Amino acid sequence: MQVERQAKEGLEGSEAPGLFVSQFTHSLDPKKRLIIPAIWRQNVGYPKQLFVLRGVNQKCLYVFPSREIHKRLEAIQTRSIADEKATQFMRILASSADLVTWDGQGRIRIKDELLSYAELTDQVLMASNFRGFELWNPLRWASVDQASAAEGFVEAAKYVGF
Fold first, then answer.
1. This prediction's pTM
2. How do residues 121-134 score in pLDDT, each as one tens digit?
3. What pLDDT sits at residue 47?
4. Could you say which of 15, 18, 20, 89 has the lowest number of CB atoms within 10 Å?
């Protein structure tokens, strides 16, 4: 309890408690709950909430802590409500999103519609993207990962200025 309180005090008010790195594969349990790795739960910070969103250009789910969602929404909220494209994007994104917290064992329950969208039924590959992580069907991930390698990791690094 003491360690948890110290960790909470150390993370509260912190803009970026940690970056998400690595990848994990976990199974959905019979109640369709997914264990979030402990190190990633620590990186979420406070509040202990995760936003689960459908992938924009891939059949996966994006998972972001509150701080990241708020950063992204700031840019979008400057758009006029008369901006039809922005309004449509926000409507689709928000209406399909899920806000989750984990239980004592570090498990989250993602709504069925999102699991179905990403074709997640048993195994889930969790791939980090520094700001959050993505949930993938392992077979789909393998094909996307292969395609990324074929397209040129070096070219992508140049594109983002890394």
1. 0.81
2. 999 999 999 999 99
3. 85
4. 15
- DSSP secondary-structure letter at 121? S
Is the CB of residue 92 less than 8 Å from the CB of residue 53? Answer: no
Q: Give me the phi and psi of 146, to 5 degrees please.
A: -65, -45
The secondary structure of residue 1, as a DSSP letter, is: -
CATH number where 68 lies: 3.40.1550.20
Question: What is the C-alpha separation between 18 and 109, in angstroms, rounded?
Answer: 23
Q: Is residue 18 in a domain?
A: yes
Residue 89 structural domain: 2-137
pLDDT in tens, 61-112: 999 999 898 888 887 888 888 888 888 888 888 999 999 999 999 999 999 9
Q: How many domains does the chain have?
A: 1
Quick check: 53 and 62 in contact, CB under 8 A? yes
pLDDT value of residue 147: 67
Q: Where do we find the tokens 């991930």?
A: 141
Backbone angles phi, psi at 141, to 5 degrees: -60, -45
Please identify which residue in the block is written with the tokens 């409500």: 81
